Amino acid sequence: xxxxxxxILKRQEAILKYLEENNFAKTEELAKFLNTxxxxxRRDFQILEEKGLIIRNHGGAQVSQNILNKKFCDNxxxxxxxxxxxxxxxxAEFIENNDIIFINSSSTAIKILQYIGDKRIVVITNNxxxxxxxxxxxxxxxxxxxxxxxxxxxxxxxxxxxxxSTITATKCFIGVSGIASHCGISTSVFQETTINMKMLExxxxxxxxxxxxxxxxxxxxxxxxxxxxxxxxITDKNADESEVKKLEEKGVKVIFSEEN
Length: 260
Known about the structure:
By secondary structure, this protein is of the alpha/beta class.
């Protein structure tokens, strides 16, 4: 019985794959392809339709638009994660032993800690996601504390700002919602503007903005730092060339990650 169920599931998976690759297929076409009967294919169609995976029409079937949308979203999400990781990996190359670094609430910037290797560093961050990371014992983390901004698991408010004010970092890594030569860096969360500004101000070494190409040349809701406070931008190779040139004309060095 178990083998029969497994065989049926594999056949239905094969039907879905065929429909995804060919958009539409007739019952007879699939029966011939899978070496089975029309009745069996119709029965599979009924099960798959009840699950919302396909739509039956014109003597055959096609994949449900919901499935196509989900696959598109999954692919977009995977590509976005690859970009984030490649930008973070490039940023990690600039970290040296005994650095004291600021990292803000950015989901890209916090990924840097995965690529530190054997370096001994101190990290000051308002990014609550750091608590769930499996970090090297050589990485010392100072979490700012403060009010928790739930959507991003970030620490905001006076307590977070005051902690940052007491520390001078050797390097600063800021993820942003937008960066443009004419208006600096910006964020979608108003409460994080002072955090970003204070990290940039209290860094006596190079400052890095991590931003994928979709954020280059963009001004988001709230300004959170002057372009004069930014030394480097790390982005992917899809960044608009004219916007990159404008940043470089402002004295910002633009560095590209390996993936695109």
